[in-house]
Every structure is written in structure tokens, then in C-alpha cells.
Amino acid sequence: MPRLYAPPVACILHGQIENTVSLMTTLTTPAAETGADRSNMGIVCTDADGKVLHAAGIGKETAILALVRDPEWVRSISETRLASLKLNGRKLVLLWCELAEGALLAIREAGGDTVFEFVAAVDFAYDIFDYLLSNPFDGMTVVDARGIVRFISPIHEKFFHHRPGEGAGKPVQKVIENTRLHKIVQTGKSEVGFTQRMGGTNRVVSRTPIFRNDEIVGAIGPCSLRVVPLSFSEANCCAASLRVLVERASRRCISS
Questions:
Q1: What is the average per-residue pLDDT within 231-238?
Q2: Distance between CA atoms of 127 and 236, rounded to whole angstroms?
Q3: What is the pLDDT of residues 217-227, one digit of tens each?
């Protein structure tokens, strides 16, 4: 019997299903056309009565189908929306999405131990992810390895007067003024505590490349939307001090 970590993990956040649609497209498109490795992902679709209508990839595993048909497990994951599962030595993250006429379970092998263990240990992991992505005081922009916008948090979209999803799929420099995220995916170097002129105001931002197996897969750009009563020069001074502290801390970590 697979080991199920009681508080579940892996999900659709804030009602946004674009990534799940992308996963479904990948699983239902011939492999030769996508070049995707389907061995680490899967889906299960059910109707309103819980009957399995379709399964693909890992979703065809007997253990996965048994869970989907278990009313108690379905009630649990319906509440937490995220779940983690160890199956045949593989660490999986599960996403449950209620639909108008049923439900969708998206499955993917965890990219690392940290996310898996976090979701396994915290039964409100979904709510934490949701807060981080919809925090009213801090915006977030995510770009892929080509510098194409994949996600902008709702508060950041509002700040730029964008409609929901308007910036997705566009080069980041055409969406956010004075951005350097497209440079970060080229250099692979972080920029912490810099000021950036946006919307007629100066904001403190950080830009961080994201790696998978030593390859850059994208970058994130957290941005404080708090109003700070500092002049531009004062803000730059604070940002410079913060960078010095970060560099010192990094050197201490390396030396230890």
C-alpha cells in the first residue's frame, strides 16, 4: 500500500488552472510533438459521482485510482487541495481541483525533497502558497528561461492596470517597465534589494534565477508594494546596505 502523507500537497492556486490545462495538453498530445517526459506526470478525471472518466500517465497506477475511489481520501484532499504521496519509491505531489461536473487530479513527481516534505508536514500548505502569490503588499513576477512572463500576482497586475493574465506569454520587458528579469535568466546571478522605477514610484525589488539540475529554468521577481517615505537616494542607500549584508552572510555560509 503506498505511503500517503495525511495532509496532502500540490495544487492549483487561487482558482487558476492554466498549468493544469498545460499538463492535460501535454498528456493528450503525441509525445513526438511535445518532447515531454510523461513518465513523471499524470491526471485523473472524475464525474460528479466520483466515477473515473479518464486517466493518463501516473494517473493509471492502481494505487492512484484506488485513492480517487476512496470517499474518505477524496474528502481530505478536497479540503486541503494539496497532497503528497510516496509510490514505489517515487515522491509525488497531487493537485485536486473541483469542477462544475466532477473533479480533476493532477499528479507530478516532486522536483526535490524540500517541497515534498513541506507539503507532507503542513496541512495548510496550499494556503501558504496562496498567500505568497496573492499577498496584498508584495508583488511577484515569474518568467521562464527565455524571459517570457508566466505569472504575475494579482496585486502586481492591479498595480500595472493589467487585466488578469494579460501579461502572460509576453517578453517581460514589454510588460514591466525597467525590469531586469530577462537579464537574470541570462547571467544566472541574483540581484537583491535594488530599487526599480515603476508606475511613477520607486520600489525595492529582488531578482533571483531558478535552477533545476544546474540549469536555469526561469527567474522570480518579488517586489514590495509598500509605500516607503524615502527619497530615491535614501532608498538606494538602504538597498546598498542590504546588499552588503547579504554578501557578508553569503561569504560566511561559504566559509563555514
A1: 60
A2: 34
A3: 999 998 887 65
CB-based burial label for 53 (10 Å; 0-12, 13-18, 19+): exposed
Domain spans, the chain: 3-130, 135-255
Fold classification of 135-255 is: Beta-Lactamase (3.30.450)
Determine the Cα–Cα distance for residues 9 and 93; give it in Å rounded to an integer. Answer: 5
Partners of 205 in the β-ladder: 194, 223
156, HSE (Cβ side, Cα atoms, 13 Å): 27
**Residue 18: HSE in the Cβ half-sphere, 13 Å Cα cutoff:** 10
* Whole-number percent of the chain with pLDDT over 90: 45
Place of cell 517541497: 115
- Cell numbers 524571459 correspond to 147
The residue count for the chain: 256
What is the topology classification, in CATH, of domain 3-130?
Profilin-like (3.40.1840)
Instruction: Please tell me the predicted confidence (pLDDT) of residue 233.
Output: 59
* pLDDT tens string 64-78: 999 999 999 999 999
DSSP conformation letters of the chain:
--EEESS------TT--HHHHHHHHHHHS-HHHH---GGGEEEEEEETT--EEEEEEGGGSHHHHHHHT-HHHHHHHHHH-EEEEEETTEEEEEEEEEETTEEEEEEEE-SSHHHHHHHHH-TTHHHHHHHHHH-TTEEEEEEETTSBEEEE-HHHHHHTTPPTTTTTTSBGGGTSTT--HHHHHHH---EEEEEEEETTEEEEEEEEEEEETTEEEEEEEEEE-S-----HHHHHHHHHHHHHHHHHHHHHHHH-
Tell me the C-alpha distance between 61 and 109, whole Å: 13
